[in-house]
Each structure stands twice: as C-alpha cells, then as structure tokens.
Amino acid sequence: MDPVRNPYAPGAGQRPPELAGRGRELDVFDIVLERIARGRPERSLMLTGLRGVGKTVLLNTLRSQAINRLWGSGKIEIRPDQSLRRPISAALHMAVRELAPRHRAPDRIDAFLGVLKAFAQRSAPSGRGGASPRLRDRWQPGIDVPAASGRADSGDIEIDLVELLTDAAAVAADVGTGIAVFIDEMQDLAPEEVSALCAACHELSQLGAPLIVVGAGLPHLPAVLSAAKSYSERLFRYQRIDRLDRIAADQALCLPAEREEIEYEQKALDLLYEKSGGYPYFVQAYGKTTWDHAPRSPITAADVRVAAPDAEAELAVGFFGSRFERATPAEREYMRAMATLSLVDGEDDGTQDDMDAAVPTAEIARALERKPTSLSPARDALIKKGLIYSGERGTVAFTVPHFGRYLRTQPA
C-alpha cells in the first residue's frame, strides 16, 4: 500500500492519529479546569507510567485543553543536570504573555515580570551536588522591566517558588482565568526542588488560587513526591497511564486506516495486539510497518507476520538498543541479571504478553554472587539514567516495557 498515506506515528511524544483509550483522563482534566474556573478547590495532577505508554502525548493534549479555555500555559521537560529555576521561569513567562493582552492593568503584568526576572536571575549559593551554578542555568529573560527586590529572590528555592507561583496565580485571577504548568520527566527533579514544588502546590491549594501543575513521570514518581513532603499523597490527583485494552488498541489501528479506506481482518488485529501488548508506542510501530508491507486491503495476519521482524528490528535499535548503549558494562551485567529473574512464569515464549516483574535487589546480588552493597552504584546509576526504577523498597523494575525480553534475546 502507499507508504505516503501511512497514518501511523511511532515517534517520541508524537501524537498518534487516533488518541484511543484516554477519554477518561481527558474528561477528568476538563472537570478540573471547569471547577477551578468556578472557584472550586482542585488538586494538581500527576500522570505516571512506563516509557512508551503515551504520557508526553497526553500531557500535550491536556495542555491543548487548557489553551482552548484561554488559560495561560507553559511546558517544561526536566533534565537531571539543570536547575528548575530556568525552565520554570521560561514556562511562566510564556503563560503570562498569553494572558497579558487581556489584562486591564499593564502595571500588574510589569510587576509580576519584575518578580519573575528576579527569580530567574537569583542563583542559589551552590548548584546540584554542591557545585557552583553553571552559566547556562542563569537564564537571561527577554524582560524589559527591572528585576524586583524582596520577592521570590531569597535564593531558597522553596520560598521563592511559593512566592512566584502565588503571584502568577494572582495575575490569572485578575483576568478571570487560570495558569497550567506542565512538567515532563518530573522524577528527575532534585530533592529540594520536589519539596519546593510540593510546598507551592500546597499553598496554591489552600488559597484556592487558579494555578495548577500537571506533572508526568515514571511509576515511582509518587514515592519521590512522598519522600519530599508527607502530605503529597493527599496533595495531588494521581493517574496511572497504562497500556491500551483490546478495544482501544483496535481503535488506534482501525480508525486511522478507515479514513484511508483500508480495513483489517480480525486475525490481523489479534496478532497485532499480541505483538504490541497494547503499548501505544508499539501499536504505532507495528501498525506502521504492517501498513508498509501489506500489498492491499484488507490487511491480513500474514501481512503482520511478514512485517513483524522489521518492526522488532527497528524497536531493537531505536527503542531498546539506544537505552542499552547508555549503560556501562557493570550496569549491563546488573540489567541482564534483572532480565533473567524478572519473568513472571519463568518462561519466555516470544510474545509481548511475557511481562517483566519487579525483582528484589537481594536476588540480583545472589545471582551475581556479589554483596548487595557492592551493586548499589550500578543500581543508583541505572535509576538516574531512567532505565530502572524502584517502586517498592528493596525491588527494581525496568522503566521500558519488555526491556527484559529484549535483553534475553541479546548475546552476552
């Protein structure tokens, strides 16, 4: 079939042609926005899930919902090597600029921009890990007003962020709307930044201020937040983003194809779900490759079987292999032991239904005939690189679906 008409989009953060299976999350956010618009109290929202389940896509879609309601918005992606001050300043600058044309008092906007500039230019005494702040973290905003003094410029990130977000919310209230800040890869925030963000959300919630934070991160994000502030369990609304059920996965494949006047045989859909496991990224990857290999409509199970090796080869290089290459030899050894121990039933028949379970770190140490403490550096480095996470104390699991299966197919 014509590859130019291929509707599927297996890209990082790229919206698929049909956002199937996420209606509940979109409805919940609509309610949140409407409640805040009516002055009702609401909690900020946290999306959690493995890589490849569509958290970033959903985050972008939620932002579009806020923009459609004329909210100010800004989105950032956290990087472990960068202070929160610079990206959060840029996001709020963007949000307030969206609101400024509707504000009746330019002086109020200028006053906030002065506070924002002071916050952005105020470096803490030391950067992450005690190092001096890097020059690239000292954002120079394109703000013509002078920096304010005595507000959001103490150098204490918790004090400053509370004051900054409170002032931003006040600007939104003046306009009769709200501000939404979207934060991706939120688990990579430094501990003091997590604490500051929780404190700011707590203050905004108590004030009933029209500013919310929508975060997205790996499955252990709730534990990261709870470690920073004990009340975070009640502070945020958590939504776990998981793989698609069968109906949603079929919709993600069939509806875009129908718009191109292409159909699937039922057995082809059966096999595609078996291969993809319902993970949105895999659904798009297998769908795209199958389309390119199928000679005509309807697409058959035979077409899927012919296309599957190419899809798996592409995933092995781009989705799995690129992550594996970031690991050191010691870290690879650790992950290979995890992969061996993580099979639920002890067997791998080559289908996507073979799930990788969380593995006790003590078992990994026994398998490698090492002391648990000697493996801590490898484990901590893998967590920092976002390859594994610790959902429960004493256990680790892969952040990427079926990464264990990939490792079990690779030569040692």
Overall shape: it is: globular
Helix percentage: 40-55%
- In the CATH scheme, what's the topology name of the largest domain? Rossmann fold
Largest sheet report: 5 strands, parallel
Named at the architecture level, the CATH assignment of the largest domain is 3-Layer(aba) Sandwich
H/I helix tally = 16
* Radius of gyration from CA coordinates: 23 Å
Report, as a whole number of angstroms, the end-to-end distance. 39 Å
* CATH class assignment of the largest domain: Alpha Beta
Number of extended strands: 8
Q: What portion of residues belong to β-strands?
A: 5-15%
Count of the domains: 3
If strands are numbered along the chain, what order do they take across the biggest sheet? 2-3-4-1-5
Mean pLDDT across residues: 89
Oligomer: single chain
The CATH fourth-level homologous superfamily of the largest domain: P-loop containing nucleotide triphosphate hydrolases
Order of helices and strands: HEHEHHHEHEHHEHHHHHEHHEEH
Q: Spans with pLDDT under 50 lasting ≥5 residues? A: none
Helix/strand-derived class? alpha/beta
Descriptive report:
The protein has a five-stranded parallel sheet with strand order 2-3-4-1-5, with helices on both faces. It has three domains: 23-240, Rossmann fold; 244-322, Helicase, Ruva Protein, domain 3 (Orthogonal Bundle), CATH 1.10.8; 326-408, Winged helix-like DNA-binding domain superfamily/Winged helix DNA-binding domain (Arc Repressor Mutant, subunit A). The two termini are 39 Å apart. Helix 13 crosses helix 14. It has helices at 23-37, 55-68, 85-99, 106-121, 157-175, 191-207, 221-228, 232-235, 246-259, 266-276, 280-293, 301-324, 329-341, 361-368, 372-384, 403-408, and strands at residues 44-48, 72-77, 179-184, 211-217, 236-240, 359-360, 388-389, 395-398. The chain is built from 16 helices and eight strands. By secondary structure, it is of the alpha/beta class. Strand 7 (388-389) and strand 8 form a beta hairpin.
